[in-house]
Amino acid sequence: MNLQISILGTGWLGLPLAQALITKNNIVKGSTTSEDRLSVLKHEGILPYLVAINEKGPKGDISSFLEGSTLLIINIPPGLRRNPESNYVAKIKNLIPYIEQSTVEKVLFVSSTSVFADQEGFPVISQETIPNAVSNAGKQLFETEKLLQNSTKFKTTILRFAGLFDSRRHPARMLSKRKGVKNPKAPVNLIHREDCIGVIQKIIETNSWDCVFNASYPDHPEKALYYTKVCKQMGLPKPDYDFDTVSKGKLISSEHITNTLGYTFGIKL
Fold this sequence. Notes:
Blueprint: E1 4-8, H1 14-23, E2 27-32, H2 38-43, E3 47-54, E4 57-60, H3 62-66, E5 71-74, H4 88-100, E6 106-112, E7 124-125, H5 136-150, E8 155-161, E9 163-165, H6 171-175, E10 190-192, H7 193-205, E11 212-215, H8 223-234, E12 251-252, H9 255-261
Parallel strand pairs: 1-2, 1-5, 2-3, 5-6, 6-8, 7-12, 8-11, 9-10
Antiparallel strand pairs: 3-4
Helix pairs in contact: 4-5
């Protein structure tokens, strides 16, 4: 491909994504908010930049970070669990003018399926489904998506991931031992980190811009059955579930990804 790509956010997903893109002979710039990680990025062949996205505007040399890149991947989660008062929409709104003044032609925004509310009956969420978020994070992500899509200076593709996991980071570890876990009959929506990277690479390879993709592994087992099984496999105490309250949820369809991108999911739940 031989592109120069800037990745805003090189953490749990962004770092291995950068590594994968470099193996495809791309030049990758990566941002971090920690000076200690600059040497880590450099060691991996990533051009490191100290950049922070704040509500009043970016901090750090954002112009140099973007300069020369034709693609920007925004991989910064809202972080509203730690800081509920944070204004994620303002952070991205104040970043957009810098993108518009740069060489960036395409933006890939890593969003979340939390833009869709859980409901009784577990509706199937397709590409045509209009987001109806009720959570603060979901609402802010949807507003941010629209901001990026409204710019005429670059093309934006929205990629909404379901729950992320790998062998070390699995929701079962957090649910283990919990009492009264809600929505036990809801379908599970998860995607492995390797598939996240694979989908992003497919979007780039197929030039799929001005698009929206919802990404989840195609199988959706019942929550209580699934996490009970996984906890047993991990040797963890199983969760306790609330079966007295009506379960709410949703089923994230990835048919658009498999049909449009020709992507085959590889890592099973």
